[in-house]
Design a protein that fits this description.
The complex is a heterodimer of chains A (about 325) and B (about 260). Chain A is an alpha/beta fold. Chain A contains eleven helices and 14 strands. In chain A, the strands form three sheets. Chain A has a six-stranded mixed β-sheet, sandwiched between helices. A four-stranded antiparallel β-sheet of chain A has the order 2-1-4-5, covered by helices on one side. In chain A, strand 12 and strand 13 form a beta hairpin. The two termini of chain A are about 30 Å apart. The C terminus of chain A is likely disordered. The chains are: A alpha/beta (about 325), B mainly alpha (about 260).
Chain lengths: ~325, ~260
Amino acid sequence: MPAIEVHALTRAFKKGPRAVDGIDLTVDEGEIYGFLGPNGAGKSTTVLMLTTLLPPTSGTALVAGFDVVKDGARVRGAIGAALQEAALDRFLTGWEHVRLQGALHGMSRSDIERRGGELLDRVGMREAASRKVGGYSGGMKRRLDLALALLHRPRVLFLDEPTTGLDPQSRAALWNEVARLSRDEGVTVFLTTQYLEEADALAGRVGIIDHGTIVAEGTPTALKAEIGRASVEIEPHEAARLADLERTLAQFGTAIAAPATGAAIRLDAGVADVAPIVRALDAEGIRIHQLRLREPTLDDVFLEKTGRTLQGSGDSATEGDEA
Amino acid sequence: MTRRRGWTSAVAGIASRQTRVLLKSPALLIPSLLFPMLFFAALAGGLAELARVPGFDYPAGYTSFQFVFVLFQASMFGGVFTGFAAARDFESGFARRLLLAVPHRSAILVGYVVSAMVRAAIIMAFVTVVALLAGLDLIGSPLDVGLLFALALLSNILGSLWALGIALRFRTMNVAPLMQVPFFVLLFLAPVYVPLDLLSGWIREIADVNPVTFLLEAGRALLVGEAGPVGTAWLVILIGGIILGIWSLAALRSAERG
């Protein structure tokens, strides 16, 4: 039985476009599923619906085998979630949060103490747990939030942009823990992120969402293989030769987005084209200031599917009137 | 875990968290204590001469007469302040933790109501101690006085259900005046300064049908062990509780819809 099964899931807001527009997806038990997209693409709205925080306008979603609309209480009992803003009370200590979370889930006091201690140790928060949350750093809040999400041993864990704003060390620690949860405890992880490397490093499969629809889905390797070809980005030594550079490069592949000071193409014949390009530019008298050869990335997959780069597309997108 | 045990545990968790936060942050508790004290000082101290008005025959004196009003006002506003806390939880995002973790969400509402009652009990204890020092005269039997405190404490539920209904519908502190103003109006259109019989004109007509009048008249009667509209007061609590319970549950459904 899949851990998450979604059919034609839609959420429309009164004053905005359809934030999620009829998506279908399936996540198997124990899988880490990366849900990738720019700000406003519909990632968070999807998570809110799957975690029963927002009812869908239409479509169905089963989480841990339970319908998110008809059987919300059972869904909530089976999931854990750490959303974008760690929902913590600055007046309470870490331990007080643990005890509250346990009480909300109806856990026994002894189980809360045992499991809470174990999780605080695992996320490195045991010492800080007796202090008020108001004094925690962003990374500490995230780690405590993760421990709270895991307290009642959920079968499915939702992490909504869990590493946004974290320093590289905290990010790496969180990646390790998420990977361990899936590998050792069989927890299904639904991870939304705008960071390509995060999805690449963690996710067994990736879904790319844009303007509320899933534009690509598969393993990161398969998605990149779909694009197949490497790309090259060149900056001329003299800015005045940019147009000549673009004309020459056009013989070797399809133009793709590049910095204003250079040009880039997806190579028709792959890496083998690099030497002929250099020779052609030399023949034209165009001196190369910088040349970068890149293997396909998930950003390339996004570009291929949407015509835009992932990192630069967030600003124009909207997610409607979110709750 | 049974459904009932899980529900009770969630109620206790939410109420306990609210109480902890209240006790840890004096800035949240002090206004709840200060308001009734100001009223008590202004009404019982400043207007004590009203006890000489012909027809004012309250046996326990003007301080005790005003104590009942301040007790109900403190209790009801303890409920309103809990509405503020719920609105703050929605604004800060903390309410999402509750909505995400609690299987049966009516526990959230009840948890806030229980915490409001704890808050009211603290304030009422404080008000009573101050009133005793200021000359409060408890003439009624222990049972009567106990019933007075029970009535006042239960009136807190009306305040909290009203305010929670507003907080859960709008989910912002910007609507705090909407939580307070109706209770201010109801309280001050009741016989605050003198007994109902001494009111006349439009205010008497309003006071005659104002539910708070029955609470105050019953409370003042219980304090001195006399007959009063005690049964009607319990009915006000019951009917008000049912109406405002439906109102706040509908607001919870609205919060669930996002």
